[in-house]
Amino acid sequence: MKPLAQTSQRVGAASPAAKMRSDAYPAAWLMPLILVLGVFYLYPVLEVFRFAFSDITLLGKGDDMTIQTLIKTMARPELAEILWVTLVFTGASVLGQQVLGLAVALVVVRGEKRRLFGTNLLRTTALIAWVVPGVAGGIVWKMLMNGAPFGGLNSVLRLFGMAPVQWLSDPDIVMWSVVIANIWRGTAFSMVVMYAALKAIDPVLYEAADVDGANPWQRFVHVTLPQLRAAIMVNLILITIQTLNTFDAVISLTGGGPGRATEVLSLYTFNTVFRNYDLAAGAVLSLLMLVISMSLALFYAKFLPKETGK
User: Fold this and answer.
1) Secondary structure letter of residue 41 according to DSSP
2) Are 225 and 106 in contact (CB under 8 A)?
3) How far is residue 67's CA from residue 52's CA, in Å, rounded to a whole number?
4) Distance between CA 262 and CA 176 in Å, rounded?
5) pTM for this prediction
6) Helix or strand or coil: residue 71?
7) pLDDT, tens digit, for every residue of 254-279?
8) Domains plus CATH for the chain?
9) Spatial CA neighbour of 288 closest among 79, 50, 64, 43
């Protein structure tokens, strides 16, 4: 036992010195992380910037530095329509995911407090949509939204004596069909974020509201929502960036059609690179997506609650 005690004393005595060395030379400990981030994140970003100011193609032809690619890509006549479709798709999807995610989280938390049967089943079912790959989810929704009378949704409409709907071929409806599919997939993530935030609210706040005679709606507006402000803003940032980068579900559901009715910016970038082989123009569009994402993230960050000293 004595040698073991002496060893532990030596280790304890060496620990402060080792800690001082680690504090004195933080770069030595951070260097592996810096190298990993530089190789896998910074270098690809720099390459995208370089490609955006060149005329390179996916076939390897051309690598001359020029600004004409940037000018011509930003001046494409279809780009304005693509940006509008992206705005509608992103705005509707983010709003739907945020509202439904909060609603499901409230139901789950309320059910857990009352120990209702099926609460865990509801939470698990909501998470299933999150883990389903976007392409697989798009194929499932494509079968459900088949325009034929025997399609999944049209079969339900037929039971009520309603005419079949062309969910994926009518330009006036197809965007909302894609939005519904994307909301179904992304609501689970919002539910997880809102569920964690709801569980972190101090129950004393609700007890004080009950003492003051607040009804359920007043408790929700004056207690729940203010306490969820930070979680709501962080969730908005995450799901907005995620939705802007969504193209797998769209390409499997509609392929961007009919026409360009559902061709969002991410899918347009994909088509530019892998169907038109224009790597330089794809790099320009990728930078455009980066600028939009960063601008929205900075805008949302302004509404995050600020930490105040006591």
Assistant:
1) I
2) no
3) 8
4) 9
5) 0.83
6) helix
7) 888 888 889 999 999 999 989 888 88
8) 2-52 (no CATH), 77-301 (1.10.3720.10)
9) 79
